Predict the 3D structure of the following.
Amino acid sequence: MKNLYTITILTITLLFVSCDKDIVERNELYPQLNPINHDELAGTWMPILLTAPDEFSIDAPIASNSPAFTREINEIKSYQANLTSDQKRIINYWSVGGVLRWNEIMQTLVARHNRPPYQNEDGTYPTPSPTNPFANPQFPFSNPPFAARAYAYVSAAQYDAMVATWHYKKLYNRVAPFTIDAGINVMVPKSPLPSYPSEDGALAGVTVEILKLLFPTEIAFIQEKADEQKLYRILCGANVRSDIDAGVVLGRKIAAKYITRASSDGAGAAIGNQTLWSQLEANAIANGETPWISLDIPARPPMLPLFGNVKSFLMTPADVVANRPLPPPSTNSQEFLDELNEVKNYSENATREHMQIVTFWADGVGTYTPPGHWNHIAGESFVNERYSEVRWARNMALLNLAMMDAAISCWEAKYFYFNPRPTQMNPSIKTLTGVPNFPAYVSGHSTFSGAAATVLSHFIPSKAQEYQAMASEASMSRLYGAIHYRSDCEAGLVLGENVGNFAVTRATIDGAE
């Protein structure tokens, strides 16, 4: 039975993914960001892609006793003398934390684009193209592997931007404007940290550039949110404009390094081709097994069969192979038949509780996907921990790097074994949710959930039992829904835990603990 925590998340999730307006309606659920620990030494933490926190330089700030700085102080006062209702809304929205808000915006974008292309008149399927993103179908199709990679790139880049920001704050040590002019009305909790460069400016600068790459048809929406974030820090009296501008410059430089990496990480080739798809089928037959086939009508090409080759941030290709699960039960074995009959039994005897669990964890078309679901769970937890912005970024980065690796490792196993779905082996089985268009073994939900629960349990040990219970429930939801065998779910959880431990290992040496 789901506990109150889970039911609350379900309610909020259904509100969140329904439309853009719900992002605004959720504001009152969060307090303003007011960290217990400001992590003053975070500029020494180990970044992910940067070689060092000062790999990219920024200019020294203008003097706080200069006429130019006085003009920036006066800009704050000019805004505050006559704040509009929309400007007050912007303050309320962004003051809960930039990492949290951008993560929610990411969830919105993923859900909006999580729609598989519809077939052409000749029965073939078009492929979204990043070189022509507005064509039909629009780029991207933000399926679970795409989403996991997207969350990871944004979160990792944000973390590196925050480490660099904290480094330069200490280096330049420019005090916040409200310490110089008592006439400024500070509308957020006052930070004892230097204000140059602005963490919100850096977050806006780095996030916009990467989201433009990932969601090129959404540039106007993305830029609008970034402009709000930058303005918010001036409106609330926390930063002068040059603080913001320096942060944006720093963020953009860091984003460029991540964009260069993304261009050569193998994701662009993950779709494969007909020759590959036919070879995978032939390999399964040669091994005496029944190969997976698409159950879509007309048959749809398998989803991203080469995603297992995508370059990880935390694992080597050898690590991925070494952690590949042992083979599933042979499709010719009694063990397989027993698991197939178990699926049919759940299909024919669905309880109300099982149906609720299937619905809660479905995360299918039009949603923020399983990685997004765990991002949402993490956000709800982190708010209560009152992290600093840099720790928010670090923890979200490790969570999402683990789920990207979960996608890589899971998809590598899926297409290595090419195992059929239960409904393919027994068409009388009726599922409680849609049948994904890729092989069964191992379960993606289970792998994502095992990885996420492992990482979150490290961050918040007091909730470890709760996270593990949620991961188990997410895993079993796929058996209850009749789209996975028990071995898919159990092996997926183990794989996820193993993958998550790569992130946990890094967490113990990055300087934040």
Observations:
- The radius of gyration is 24 Å.
- Residues 85 and 91 are 10 Å apart (CA to CA).
